[in-house]
């Protein structure tokens, strides 16, 4: 039963096969909840089973919504405020009405205040594309195994460039990110580097500092879980960087016993401050709660809808078959339309620039413009 015209809503449909009808049903359910006969734009996320041939689903969504502006990608999983799906083929759709639009426009016509929904495949992710003045938010298309194929689309057509930029207009919004790692040390100056290897932190070998910082239960393991441990490179004042989330994660590639160095995925720089950190579900949940609070305060009002992009390594597989990021957002705003997908990297703001996050979640809260 439609109580009022909301101008934005979501729908979900999934089953045993990757049928175009799931996209059609998701859009129709969203239109019914929004009180709309047709949509200005449709945000459509599909599960990996559609990646080989998403076009029939895109056409079905466009017909159902009476709209050619269908934007989205395939992800490892999909989500709305109603549920998340990681283990069956399906579609999640959000319809926009009123004054809200998703507009495909050239980079030259944008300004620094534009909020650009940014979706790409791993092959489409380039530094030049990411590093622009406009505020990007979104994710990298993914699947559970990282093998692909991966697809992104706009205008109800797959993008040959493997990149999609859609300016979200008719709203004001706030973008935030939660990295949510447990700091094992305070920030320490990188004293000696060689290529991708940190040799010394302060006055001590890098590996020695890391081992001493590990919780006893982890330190005593036969094989230390390096995939859960990483370096946090601080941005700005190191005294407050961890608390305020001003850091980028640099992942450990190898621990080298011979010279007590640590090899990182990105080249470290002498003089920067780094802290050792570990992935932790309780810390991640607490950090996400802080992200929701800060974003709501910055927006200055309860949002009309939200976009949520968790890493596929952070969702239900991380929180024990619960998506605590989604749970906490819908607990804070019951009934809020939410859509997102689990990706292979998250795009959002960090210290005034666009950044590619890992093992994180990017959140966008949006307030629609007044409708005549």
Automatic annotation (TrEMBL):
<dbReference type="Pfam" id="PF10442">
    <property type="entry name" value="FIST_C"/>
</dbReference>
<dbReference type="GO" id="GO:0032436">
    <property type="term" value="P:positive regulation of proteasomal ubiquitin-dependent protein catabolic process"/>
</dbReference>
<feature type="domain" description="FIST C-domain">
    <location>
        <begin position="206"/>
        <end position="350"/>
    </location>
</feature>
<protein>
    <recommendedName>
        <fullName>Histidine kinase</fullName>
    </recommendedName>
</protein>
<dbReference type="GO" id="GO:0000209">
    <property type="term" value="P:protein polyubiquitination"/>
</dbReference>
<feature type="domain" description="FIST">
    <location>
        <begin position="38"/>
        <end position="205"/>
    </location>
</feature>
<dbReference type="InterPro" id="IPR019494">
    <property type="entry name" value="FIST_C"/>
</dbReference>
<dbReference type="InterPro" id="IPR013702">
    <property type="entry name" value="FIST_domain_N"/>
</dbReference>
């Amino acid at each position: 039963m439609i109580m009022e015209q909301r101008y934005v809503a979501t729908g979900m449909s999934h089953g045993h096969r990757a049928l175009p009808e799931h996209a059609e049903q998701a859009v129709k359910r969203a239109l019914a909840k929004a009180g709309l006969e047709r949509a200005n734009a449709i945000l459509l996320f599909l599960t990996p089973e559609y990646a080989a041939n998403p076009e029939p689903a895109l056409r079905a969504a466009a017909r159902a919504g009476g709209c050619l502006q269908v934007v989205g990608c395939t992800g490892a999983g999909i989500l709305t405020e109603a549920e998340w799906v990681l283990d069956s083929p399906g579609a999640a759709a959000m319809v926009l009405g009123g004054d809200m639009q998703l507009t495909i426009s050239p980079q030259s016509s944008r300004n620094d205040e534009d909020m650009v929904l940014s979706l790409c495949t791993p092959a489409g992710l380039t530094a030049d594309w990411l590093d622009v003045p406009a505020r990007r938010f979104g994710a990298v298309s993914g699947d559970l195994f990282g093998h692909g194929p991966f697809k992104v689309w706009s205008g109800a057509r797959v993008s040959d460039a493997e990149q999609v930029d859609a300016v979200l207009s008719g709203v004001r919004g706030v973008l935030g990110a939660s990295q949510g790692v447990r700091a094992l040390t305070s920030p320490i100056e990188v004293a000696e580097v060689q290529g991708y290897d940190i040799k010394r932190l302060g006055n001590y070998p890098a590996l020695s500092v890391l081992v001493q910082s590990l919780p006893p239960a982890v330190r005593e393991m036969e094989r230390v879980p390096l995939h859960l441990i990483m370096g946090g490179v601080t941005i700005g004042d190191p005294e407050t960087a961890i608390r305020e989330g001003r850091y980028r994660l640099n992942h450990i590639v190898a621990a080298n016993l011979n010279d007590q160095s640590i090899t990182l995925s990105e080249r470290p720089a002498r003089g920067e401050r780094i802290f050792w950190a570990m992935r932790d579900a309780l810390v991640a949940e607490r950090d996400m709660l802080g992200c929701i609070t800060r974003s709501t305060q910055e927006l200055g009002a309860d949002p009309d809808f939200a976009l949520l992009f968790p890493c596929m390594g952070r969702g239900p597989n991380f929180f024990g078959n619960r998506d605590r990021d989604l749970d906490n957002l819908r607990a804070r705003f019951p009934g809020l339309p939410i859509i997102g997908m689990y990706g292979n990297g998250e795009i959002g703001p960090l210290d005034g620039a666009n950044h590619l996050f890992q093992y994180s979640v990017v959140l966008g809260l949006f307030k629609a413009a007044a409708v005549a």
